[in-house]
Amino acid sequence: MTSAIKTDKKNQLFLLLGFFFLTNAIIAEFVGAKIFSLEKTLGLLPFQFQLFGGKMDGNMTAGVVIWPLVFILTDVINEYFGKKGVQRLSWIAVVCLIYSFIVVRLIMGLEGADFWINSGSNKGLTNMSVAFNALFGQGLMIILGSLVAFLVGQIVDAHVFERLKSKTAGNSIWLRATGSTFVSQFIDSYVVLFIAFYLGGNYDLIWVLQVGTFNYIYKIVVAIILLPLLYTIHNAIDRYLGLK
Fold first, then answer.
1. pTM for this entry
2. 37: domain range?
3. Total domains in the fold of the chain
4. Buried-most residue among 26, 35, 66, 193 (CB within 10 A)?
5. Contacts (Cβ under 8 Å, ≥6 apart) of 73
């Protein structure tokens, strides 16, 4: 395989991974407005376990459902394009997210047509415009917390991943993938809640620690479960690029 063909394939791979990375990051931010019950979703009884001196259940933001895919994409991009590749895409994602939030805010300011406002009556919605704004109108501190947590988490993930890859001489993919996720998501899980709800809301620090800890545990468990998928993607890319 000539050098030009290899370069062309790597460029196509970067574009493909970049598109999936940006798409998942943007979707995760917007669906994060929904809070769901993990117990009800799985058909289980409420957990109601003790944590940091208080009871809590398994309610989480819907954004964490697809966020593990961002972990995998981050690790794959770092594996083939290095820390600079991850950082470049992370900054692009932040710009795209800011643009998306601005556009949504502008759309929220548009006056809804009369027939559309009343079109949700058969679904129990009295005002579609109010429902639309309630769904997409995340608070400024939530947006700020999400952006800061995302950017810091990605930069830390890329740095830890690169260090572990160097320490293991490129071996043990599972170690650098899970190791970088353990560190970066510990930061991400608490930063977004601290900024959005502790600094920007009336929630106490105990609540932030409880929800942040539950989200962190969930992310780590899912990251471990998805390790076979990570290896599958790595093998497919190696075959695509003609690597041994």
1. 0.83
2. 3-241
3. 1
4. 193
5. 17, 20, 21, 24
